[in-house]
């Protein structure tokens, strides 16, 4: 059954949930086609399916078993009515509080039109369970998507760029205009794909790595010698003459190794 021929009653978009329902079917198809099956996963979890515009294409892919997680009870009722074949795999809940062990015994991909107001939180949660998630395909605010995919040396490059690029290879796929949504957002949207790389663990204390990256970018206009003073007085090092946006993941790892000698691993 095609999305256009389903129940004509619509779910009301709720501002507090950051809902903007995608209505451009070509864009929806292209987002779903962004899934590559990287590292041979067989299960896919869609975050915030709403009225199922992505879901309708996901469930036609025999190589994947599709699950959805939705916090909006009205959307859950709509999905249960219009996608009865999906009903056993509709999870009513909040992804940020989601325990994958309750539903998945093997790696699973994530896909979705992420609510703009919690997209960063979704990524931080995904990082916590990154070894369970070989691939992510998602749509979010264009400037955030560009920031995540941006290489070092670019003004868009930031905290999420470093933290996600430490563990994922990232591609910017397409731009989606406001008119593709109901209601239309005030900004453009971007679709990115993240594929898990071969880094099992960083060669430094991970908690401190996150702290170094965040501290460095909190004062991104300063040289790292000054920006990192809240952590401690670093010994002379060529990296400290640069600014945060000039460093790649490996260089932040190197700074973290130095920081470990200052504050102790794990602090």
TrEMBL record:
Pfam families: RrnaAD. InterPro entries: KsgA/Erm, rRNA_Ade_diMease-like_C, rRNA_Ade_methylase_Trfase_N, rRNA_adenine_dimethylase, SAM-dependent_MTases_sf. It is found in: Cytoplasm. Residues 27-198 form the Ribosomal RNA adenine methylase transferase N-terminal domain. Belongs to the class I-like SAM-binding methyltransferase superfamily. rRNA adenine N(6)-methyltransferase family. RsmA subfamily. S-adenosyl-L-methionine binds at residues 20, 22, 48, 70, 94, 113. Its main location: cytoplasm. Gene3D superfamilies: Ribosomal RNA adenine dimethylase-like, domain 2, Vaccinia Virus protein VP39. It comes from the Bacteria. This is Ribosomal RNA small subunit methyltransferase A. GO terms for molecular function: 16S rRNA (adenine(1518)-N(6)/adenine(1519)-N(6))-dimethyltransferase activity; RNA binding. One of its GO terms (cellular component) is cytosol.
